[in-house]
Every structure is written in structure tokens, then in C-alpha cells.
Amino acid sequence: MCYILCKYKQLQYVIIVHMLFGLQLRQRMCAFVFNVIKKKFFSPSHFNLQPMAVRPENFTMRNLVRVAFLLVACSVSQICASFSFNTKDLVLLVNDSTTLTLTLTDNVLRNTTLILSTNHKDLLTTNVTKIEVTNSTGTNVWPVELFGHDAGHDLLKVDAFPPSIKCSDAFVRVTLQHSNELALFSVIVGWVYFVAWSISFYPQMYENWRRKSVVGLNFDFIALNLVGFILYSMFNVGLWIPEIEKDYISRNPRGLNPVQLNDIFFSIHAVFATLITVIQCYCYEKGDQQVSRTAKSIMSFYGLIIAVLLVLVYLQKIVWLDFLYYCSYIKLTITLIKYIPQAVMNYKRKSTIGWSIGNIFLDFTGGILSILQMIINAYNYNDWASVFGDPTKFGLGLLSVIFDILFFLQHYVFYSGVNYAEFENYNEVEVEDEVTNSEEHPKPTDKSDDQIC
């Protein structure tokens, strides 16, 4: 090889061309190199290998570097070839079929066997499971037919043997469903409860503005709600940061970013809406209400956890993606407990005055529709494990609905006849008492002696 490079010094430029130009040109240049070697040094007239005898002067550093670069050029040309499908995501009906296209981006220099496989043979099968690729094959596109047998989620992937060709992009996420109509209905239901939850903040703000008072609205609920939505926004926005999203994809190479644009909008909108309610708590009549010591202790504990996590991120013990996951777990615990202070406060006051029932109607609507969507998707995709196998999401939605039902009972059954709330040091109660007493027992009017006459 050193003799070849000494005699044909122009071959040293092959690696430069190989690195600077496109895949096809690099492949042609490498083929040219092999043809030159074959014709000039391995033809019958060159079987006499005396000219290629080992000579000390051929083993110079320059020649060795040239040999190394030539070998790298040939290997990189092989690695640059890759396979990919014409789509990454596919929706297929049960008992239906479709055809995909598997494309080779470059010719290969050695015979390669492609193995097509799925994770669940009972859900999805292909018409071919093996494709032989040779250097002499001029076809760079292969049709692959898929057959759906049952509803669910599956993954079609391609592996190359020997593994010298890039196949990391040769996969398709397949969703098999019973009905397109059910899928459309699920999308509509999703948007309806998204709107219901988004506008559920405004009835309470309107109630506060109308009464010019926040008496009856529990401050622990507002404080926990604000912290929870801030953490939820951090998680949603964080997964759209390129570096963090890259970490997520590296952990889930064939998955999708779970955060959609509407998730970011909802969480940020919820933070601003809750902040407006907090401002109302400072501006309007509030009596002696304040955040309780219990709520302050809980939020301090959450703050300590977040501070420790930030230190771990700084020390590179965990990455930002792990930090966001822990923030989402804290948000889940807040969702579990945030309604309790308001329900207890209503019970102590024996009244729901100041607590907007419109907020509860919208929250109840969103919760019921979210559970309905989960059930529709579970049937349509045969994915009941998402409902009962992972109880977190379903349980939180169900718990929210249960609290809404409790608030309905408090408002319309338990305390429906209460016109005012007996709660100490509430100025609003004193004002309502004075108005009621003045209407029932009007005070005598002081008149002068002239008026009496």
C-alpha cells in the first residue's frame, strides 16, 4: 500500500475529496481508487510482486498517514450509507394495510442483510422480514407492506447485519386504531376540555371584582395553585429547550416530545390568571385571611427540595431533564392536596359565599371530558393500561372530579340557604349584618323641633 501511494501520489487527495464533497461523489472516488488498485497492481501482468517488496524507505511517516487516511475514507463511505422510511409516524386501521418506502441514501461497498421486525407480532406484520442489499444492486428503494391485526401501538424497525450501515432513522411508530371517527371525536373532546380548563379561572376573578372582596376564597388554595402551575410551566417550557429536548430524545430515541404547544399555552396562561387572583387578594377586602402556617411549611419543604435539586444540577449529578421530572412530581402532589383547604374552609364557615361555583362547573366539565377522552382512547387503541396500569393521570382527574362534586354539595345542598357567612373578623359579614338589620328594624329619624311643629 505504501508503494501504491508513493507511485500514485494523487491518491492522497482522495480523503480530501471524500470529506469535502457529497455522498455520491465520495462513493465514486472510492470506487475509482479500488479500480486503480485492481487494474494496476492485481491484474495478471502484475502478479509479480517484486516491485512491492517491503522496503525501509517506503515506511515513512507520510506514507503511513496516507494509508491510514485511505482506510478511513473507505470505512466512512460505508458508514455514511443509511436507511430511512418515508415517514416516522403512521396511523393504520385494524384489518387494513398500507405500503411504506424504505430508501437507501447511498450505495454500499459490501453485501448487507436488513432485518425488519416489530415489537408485537399480534398487532403488526410486514410482507418481508429480510432484504439482501449488494453492491451490484442498483435499486435504492424497497416497498414494505404493513398489515394491522389489532389495535395498539407498535414500532417497525430495521437492523443491518453486519452493522456497518446507519439504521437509527429506519423506524416507524405505528398507531393501530379501531375507528377514524372515534379518533376525531377524541380530538374534539380534548379541545373542549382544554377550553373549559383555560377559562375556568375567570369566574373567580369576576366574583372577586363584583364583590370587591376575596373573603371566602382560601389563600392556601391560591398559593398552592400558583406554585403548582409555575412548576408545570417550567416542565412544559423546559422540554422545548433544544438541549433538554436532545436529552429526552437520547433517552427515548424513537419517541416524541410529550409536550405540545397547547400544553405550554395552558400552563403559562394558568400562571398569569392565578397571579391576577393574587393581586386581587391584595387589593380587595380580605378580612384577616392569610396563608396558613401549614401551607407555608409545605411550600418551604418544596422550595428546599428544588434548591437541593438545583445544587445537584450545578454539581452535574443530575441533568436538567431530571430536574424537570422532579418538578412535575411536586406538581402532582400539589394537585392532590390543593382543594383540601378550600373544602375545609367552606365547612367551617358553613357557606360557599366568595367561592365561585362557575369555576367548579368549568373544572368539573374539563375533568369529566378528560376522563372520557382517556376511555375513548383506551378502547380505540386497545390501551387500557394507560387508564388502569398507570393510575396517576386517571387518579388525579378522578380526584379533581370528586372534589368538584363535594363543592356542588356544599353550595347547593349543605349551605344553600345561607345568605352570609359567620366567620370572625370578616368585615364583609359585619356590613351584611348591618344592612340586614337596617332593613328589618329601621332606626328612628332625628327631627328638629321646627320639623315637629
Automatic annotation (TrEMBL):
UniProt main location, coarse: membrane
Gene3D superfamilies in alphabetical order: 1.20.1280.290
UniProt subcellular location: Lysosome membrane
Record bears the keyword Transmembrane: yes
GO MF term list: L-cystine transmembrane transporter activity; symporter activity
Positions of region (Disordered): 432-453
Catalytic activity: L-cystine(out) + H(+)(out) = L-cystine(in) + H(+)(in)
Pfam families: PQ-loop
One Gene Ontology cellular component: lysosomal membrane
Transmembrane parts of this sequence: 64-85, 182-202, 214-235, 264-285, 297-317, 323-341, 353-376, 396-415
Membrane topology reported for the UniProt record: Multi-pass membrane protein
InterPro entries, A to Z: LC_transporter, PQ-loop_rpt
Keywords assigned by UniProt, alphabetized: Lysosome, Membrane, Repeat, Symport, Transmembrane, Transmembrane helix, Transport
UniProt entry tagged with the keyword Transmembrane: yes
Compositionally biased spans, kind Basic and acidic residues: 438-453
Family: Belongs to the cystinosin family.
Entries under NCBIfam families matching the protein: 2A43
Protein name: Cystinosin
Species per Swiss-Prot/TrEMBL record: Aphis gossypii
